[in-house]
UniProtKB/TrEMBL annotation:
InterPro entries: Filamin/ABP280_repeat-like, Quino_amine_DH_bsu, WD40/YVTN_repeat-like_dom_sf. Keywords: Signal. It comes from Streptomyces rhizosphaericola. SUPFAM superfamilies: YVTN repeat-like/Quinoprotein amine dehydrogenase (SSF50969). This is Ig-like domain repeat protein.
Length: 679
């Protein structure tokens, strides 16, 4: 075999399957050259949380890392204050200028300026004195600490903030019988009341002190084992506790049974209220007006109560971790805090499997949550009356005369049109009727604006209102055209209401040619819109009518096909003459003809060369073979000898859709080229 070489073209053809074993073709064609919020916290643990309403900052202590993280109300970290080994309890000064932090690893109390977020002072307490939980009351900063003295155990000390010297005073002896540093609580609303609680005990122990004189005077110790209605009321394993702004109650959350938060009178520590939870009172926080946020480690995770309330008026459930129901977020002990204006509750959570900490912002916690449900028929007939029902659900019930607005959105009123408002019944249910004159998707949105006691809420329901069928046609479907021919496509639109606009799109075959909008315009007076497409590939032409208020959308498609340019040229013959009416190229049997195919180029495309011979007036296939095109669309194939003389022969080139390496054009054959070998 021999290979004919031309510039940029090099390849070898395989053998044809032929009847005459002596005939083989050899080619020379080159290979073509994606309501509440949360934010992650950079902490490894959490000890306490306080909120500065003046600067709108949240402070979280991280004992394991020895730092305090300060964020804004959205959870964005503003600064991390380090060099605070073991920092745990935090207390905000009544003027919001200072955060006091217990730093047991440094045997000191640190003062953090809330404006500059820097440590401005440190109160050393003495060797071995490890403070835990500070609280400001009676003009002093009180703190529980573990004493280094043998047998002294937990005690309470103070820093006199009212004196220029800011004298540190430590407790002595076993004044109150604390076996470890007690947790302290105070509230600016009751500046002379200090409460203390024992941690780690199977039964919680509380003390209440009067600090109006600058010293601690214990007024109650307990709690009492019986309440107003009798019965045992031990609370086990302290998780968190706080004091109400009026100074009359101490609220305690326990980690064990009973699964409830308890309220005790500061006068005698008798039980005054019990707030049941699913899994203990893991964290709690009291707002300046006495509203209580109570946290649990099971759903609902946060329950909000009015002061003295028996049941929550609002609840929050943390989302599943990463959308996986089997993993959830765990509220941290002492991990709740109110914004002073009651606009938010902040919660520190961690994933129960990987200790990823987040600060969650629970919004609108001061008002009862309202849920709106709206039910409408899924389908309706245009210009006929339909009924919409719904309900506003809340606890406590909405005030008498509360109203909800109704807005209808449709194709002719995309920004919405107000309908008559509705007044829910006592049970919160409502109903109204409407007659939609516009078809398509019609949405009814029912909204409650909210009040001082109830949060806003809304819900929508969508009705598919019927529209008449649209007549839309497009010509040229299944038509076939010569390569590079300009072909006109015409869309014909029938009767519509207002919209007379049609879009015409062209989508040429092949992944390298994206679908393209050719024209978007109103049809003419006859309902027609035309566009011209240059047919270099098979092309899907689409006409789109978007629909209007009374007629449905409609899309129609016509697929038109484009051939390729293909021809074959014979060379090396010694003359051309006709046999009958057909022109033949004459070759000496010693010459090897070259067949040069020219075809519209496409990456990876090959031509199919077909060879036939004539026997007793009938043409028979000698074989077919595919040869790649060069980047100029050329392919040269040489037919080697020896050659049989006296036989009429012919050859043609073809592009075969799907077999020539692509499917972007329609199958196209060149004209036959005739030749004969002589002696």
């Amino acid at each position: 075999m021999r290979t004919r070489r031309i510039p940029t073209v090099t390849a070898t053809a395989t053998a044809f399957a032929v009847l005459f074993s002596s005939i083989v073709l050899v080619g020379g064609a080159a290979s073509p050259a994606a309501a509440d919020s949360s934010a992650s916290l950079p902490v490894k643990s959490s000890g306490d949380i306080v909120v500065d309403g003046v600067h709108q900052r949240v402070f979280i202590s991280d004992p394991r890392s020895g730092k305090i993280v300060a964020t804004d109300y959205n959870g964005k970290v503003i600064r991390q204050i380090g060099s605070l080994p073991g920092v745990i309890g935090l207390e905000l000064s009544p003027d919001s200028k200072t955060v006091y932090a217990a730093v047991p690893g440094a045997e000191a109390i640190a003062a953090i300026d809330t404006a500059s977020l820097t440590e401005t002072k440190r109160y050393p307490l003495g060797e071995g004195v490890t403070p835990k939980y500070p609280a400001v009351a009676g003009g002093k900063l009180w703190f529980g600490f573990d004493s280094p003295e043998p047998g002294q155990r937990g005690q309470i000390g103070s820093v006199d903030l009212s004196s220029p010297e800011e004298t540190v005073t430590l407790g002595s002896g076993m004044e109150d019988g604390w076996y470890s540093a007690p947790r302290l609580a105070a509230d600016p609303g009751a500046p002379n009341v200090l409460a203390a609680a024992q941690e780690g005990s199977s039964f919680i122990t509380l003390s209440v002190y009067d600090v109006s004189t600058g010293t601690r005077t214990r007024v109650a110790h307990g709690p009492s084992t019986t309440g107003p209605t009798g019965g045992t009321q031990y609370q086990s394993y302290l998780s968190d506790f706080d004091i109400t702004p009026d100074g009359k109650s101490v609220l305690v959350g326990g980690g064990g049974t009973p699964y409830a938060a308890q309220s005790y009178s500061t006068a005698d520590l008798s039980r005054t209220n019990t707030l049941a939870t699913n899994a203990g009172g893991r964290a709690l926080a009291v707002a300046p007006d006495g509203t209580l946020a109570l946290g649990s480690w099971q759903s609902p995770n946060v329950l909000v109560y009015k002061q003295g309330g028996k049941s929550p008026y609002r609840t929050y459930t943390f989302p599943a971790y990463d959308g996986t129901p089997s993993t959830s977020y765990d509220l941290r002990e002492a991990g709740l805090a109110w914004a002073p204006d009651r606009s938010r509750v902040f919660a520190v959570t961690t994933n129960v499997y990987n200790d990823v900490f987040r600060l969650r912002t629970l919004t609108d916690a001061s008002r009862s949550a309202v849920t709106v449900s709206v039910k409408a028929p899924s389908k309706a007939t245009r210009a006929k009356k339909l009924t919409v029902n719904g309900r506003l659900t809340t606890n406590p019930a909405l005030p008498a005369g509360a109203r909800a607005t109704v807005v209808r959105t449709d194709l002719e009123s995309p920004k919405g049109r107000s309908l008559a408002s509705v007044t829910p019944k006592k049970d919160g249910t409502f109903s109204f009727t409407d007659t939609p004159h516009v078809g398509g998707k019609v949405t009814y949105k029912v909204s409650y604006a909210g009040s001082g006691t109830h949060s806003p809420a809304s819900r929508s329901a969508t009705v598919d209102v019927s529209r008449a069928a649209t007549s839309l046609k497009l010509n040229r479907n299944n038509s076939t055209h010569a390569y590079n021919k300009n072909v006109s496509f015409t869309a014909s639109l029938g009767t519509t209401h207002k919209n007379r606009v049609v879009e015409l799109w062209a989508d040429p075959f092949g992944a390298d040619k994206p679908k393209k909008l050719l024209k978007k315009a109103k049809v003419n007076s006859k309902g027609n819109l035309s566009v011209t497409v240059n047919m270099k590939r098979d092309t899907a032409v689409t006409a789109v009518f978007a629909g209007d208020a009374r007629y449905a959308p409609k899309t129609v498609k016509s697929t038109a096909y484009a051939k390729v340019n293909v021809s074959v040229k014979l060379s090396k013959h010694y003359r051309t003459a006709k046999i009958g009416k057909t022109s033949y190229a004459y070759y000496s049997k010693k010459k090897n003809p070259d067949f040069t195919t020219s075809m519209t180029y496409y990456k990876g495309r090959a031509q199919r060369l077909t060879l036939q011979f004539n026997y007793q007036g009938r043409w028979y296939d000698l074989g077919q073979e595919y040869f790649p095109l060069a980047s100029d669309g050329k392919s040269v194939v040489t037919l080697p000898g020896p050659h049989e003389t006296g036989y009429k022969m012919r050859v043609r080139a073809s592009y075969v859709n799907g077999s020539s390496g692509d499917s972007v054009n329609s199958t196209t054959h060149s004209a036959w080229k005739y030749f004969i070998f002589t002696k």
